[in-house]
Design brief:
- Helices cover about 10% and strands about 35% of the residues.
- It has one domain.
- The protein is mainly β.
- The chain is built from three helices and seven strands; from the N terminus they run ααβββββββα.
């Protein structure tokens, strides 16, 4: 699941992966009316779901991703999911958005300079807040 679920947190970094095709679509608006540049993200037969497609909305003012539209099949006319990307915060040296609108927020985000050894020594779920 991590491969697909990682998009919910790390999609902006996926733009730079091998096999990702990015094309400019148009200037438009997000679902909440903010002006944005819209990019299409698709795949050149890579990954577990190469048939997927995303529209990525880059906010005019912040220059951050402010919305994504997910298409299960690149040929679909309407997205299966549309979510805002909000609540940007720094986690260590990485700027991440945790807000996803009606579906809620991504919580329990932790970023370390190096992975604590303790993570690999325990089988049961760790309390990540207790790890420094």
């Amino acid at each position: 699941y991590w491969m697909n679920d990682s998009y919910w947190l790390l999609m902006p970094f996926k733009l730079f992966e091998d096999g990702v095709l990015i094309s400019y679509v148009e200037r438009g608006e997000t679902a909440d009316g903010r002006k944005a540049e819209i990019l299409e993200l698709s795949y050149d037969n890579v990954g577990a779901t190469p048939e997927n497609k995303y529209l990525i909305y880059i906010d005019f003012e912040t220059r951050l991703i402010s919305q994504w539209d997910y298409f299960a099949n690149a040929d679909d006319n309407k997205p299966a999911i549309t979510n805002p990307w909000t609540d940007y915060n720094w986690y260590g040296k990485i700027l991440l958005a945790s807000g996803r609108g009606k579906v809620g927020s991504i919580t329990n985000i932790h970023v370390w300079e190096s992975v604590p050894k303790k993570i690999f020594e325990q089988v049961e779920m760790l309390d990540f807040d207790s790890i420094k």
